[in-house]
Automatic annotation (TrEMBL):
SUPFAM superfamilies on file: C-terminal effector domain of the bipartite response regulators (SSF46894)
BP terms from Gene Ontology: regulation of DNA-templated transcription
GO cellular component: cytosol; protein-DNA complex
Natural source organism: Protaetiibacter larvae
Protein name listed in UniProt: Winged helix-turn-helix transcriptional regulator
Source lineage: Bacteria, Bacillati, Actinomycetota, Actinomycetes, Micrococcales
Alphabetical list of InterPro entries matching this protein: OmpR/PhoB-type_DNA-bd, Sig_transdc_resp-reg_C-effctor, WalR-like, WH-like_DNA-bd_sf
OmpR/PhoB-type domain: residues covered: 106-204
The keyword S-adenosyl-L-methionine appears for this protein: no
Record key words, sorted: DNA-binding, Phosphoprotein, Transcription, Transcription regulation, Two-component regulatory system
MF terms (GO), sorted A to Z: phosphorelay response regulator activity; transcription cis-regulatory region binding
Start-end of DNA-binding region: 106-204
PANTHER family for the chain: REGULATOR OF RPOS, TWO-COMPONENT RESPONSE REGULATOR ORR33
Length: 221
């Protein structure tokens, strides 16, 4: 029997809502087993700061292996000199980070489930394109970029800032837009969960593939 492994994007203190986010908790049925940190840093930039990348990797590993029972593995990514690609993107692609490498391949052949293409602002359900309104797209984009986080209505309302007719939407009408979004994602609408008394959350789910822009990057639906 195979096991399903999922990764929850987490930006820590860089997360725009970090101050109001509860401690990281695994979705129901899953348990936290470790974490990965992708660091994009080219030799020239590191050298200018007086940092040796090899020594830095050793220092990080030593810090983590000091935790009893911790197991670590490190990979250093090489790329052609002068390559016109962001260092972090090169690292994430080379190491097969799910939302960059595996996600694109999955979406190319996937005929079931929900595929959210953040870069192209496209959504499909079971291989068929789904047309979302600006606000529905904005809500879905916000939820998939911050999977595992519980969002109060106020936070979701802020995610819609910049849309048309801003005075016509209130915290209560967020419920209406989410209901519409769930209907458009049917039969997978329940991937958007209601957390009673707290708000809404989208957990990593095998029926949902997210491709395109990196988690946490700004979007313009």
């Amino acid at each position: 029997m195979g096991a399903d492994y999922v990764a929850i994007p987490w930006e820590g203190s860089a997360h725009p809502h970090a101050a109001g986010v509860a401690p990281l908790a695994a979705p129901t049925g899953l348990a936290l087993r470790g974490f990965g940190i992708y660091v994009g840093l080219d030799e020239a930039t590191a050298g200018a700061a007086g940092v040796d990348i090899g020594e830095l990797v050793d220092d990080v590993q030593r810090a983590l292996t000091g935790i009893p029972g911790a197991e670590t593995f490190a990979s250093v990514v090489l790329a052609p000199e002068g390559a016109q690609v962001a260092a972090l993107e090169a690292v994430r692609t080379a190491l097969g980070e799910p939302s960059v490498h595996r996600g694109s391949a999955l979406a190319a052949r996937r005929s079931e489930g929900v595929v959210v293409d953040l870069a192209r602002h496209r959504v499909s359900v079971d291989g068929e394109p789904v047309h979302l309104t600006y606000r529905e797209q904005a809500l879905l984009t916000h939820l998939v970029r911050h999977q595992g986080v519980i969002h109060e209505r106020r936070a979701l309302l802020a995610a819609l800032a910049g849309g048309d007719e801003p005075d016509e939407i209130s915290e209560r009408t967020i419920d209406v837009y989410l209901q519409r979004l769930r209907r458009r994602l049917a039969p997978y609408g329940d991937v958007i969960r209601t957390i009673r008394g707290r708000g809404y959350r989208l957990d990593p789910h095998p029926d949902v593939a997210v491709i395109g822009a990196a988690p946490g990057a700004p979007a313009a639906p």
